Amino acid sequence: MPDISSITHYPLKIIFAVHLILTTWGIQGHWCPQSAMFYNLLFFGCLLWAINNIESDEPLQFALIINILSILFDVVTLAIYFQDHYASERFSGAIMIINLLVRLISSKYLLKIGRARNGSLATLFPPGPGEFVVN
């Protein structure tokens, strides 16, 4: 079994992979507008930037902001455009809802990673009482 401790930026790569799979399946429906691909590509670009640039938490700030805004964008997209005429459309909508829920978890991890980098995310959103920091 491979040793995952030797993989650099493991949490960011997991966030990237999970959202890539869910986004790919979520936007396959004919009902999904191209704007969903646009804001997801921006999110993926910021994640790749954060993996490449470890000295700054600025890429994480952008990724976190886009991820939080994407929650709103996904809700609006589902509410306005979703049509469930075929099983493939229902599958696409269900996966988009799962991706929406995963965004809540990934936002929390992006915030924790930003705090660990000791950038402005560490002071912008200080940990509250009872929160633990994952390293």
Automatic annotation (TrEMBL):
Query: Its GO CC terms?
Result: plasma membrane
Q: Where is the signal peptide?
A: none
**Highest taxon, organism lineage:** Eukaryota
Q: Does the keyword Membrane apply?
A: yes
Q: In Gene Ontology terms, what is a biological process of this protein?
A: angiotensin-activated signaling pathway
Q: Where in the cell is it found?
A: Membrane
Q: Which Pfam families match?
A: AGTRAP
Give the primary localization class.
membrane
InterPro entries membership = AGTRAP
Task: Provide the membrane topology annotation.
Answer: Multi-pass membrane protein
User: What keywords were assigned to this record?
Assistant: Membrane, Transmembrane, Transmembrane helix
Question: Which parts of the chain span the membrane according to its record?
Answer: 12-31, 37-55, 62-82, 94-111
Q: Has keyword Membrane?
A: yes
User: What protein name is recorded for this chain?
Assistant: Type-1 angiotensin II receptor-associated protein
- Organism, per UniProt? Microctonus hyperodae (Parasitoid wasp)
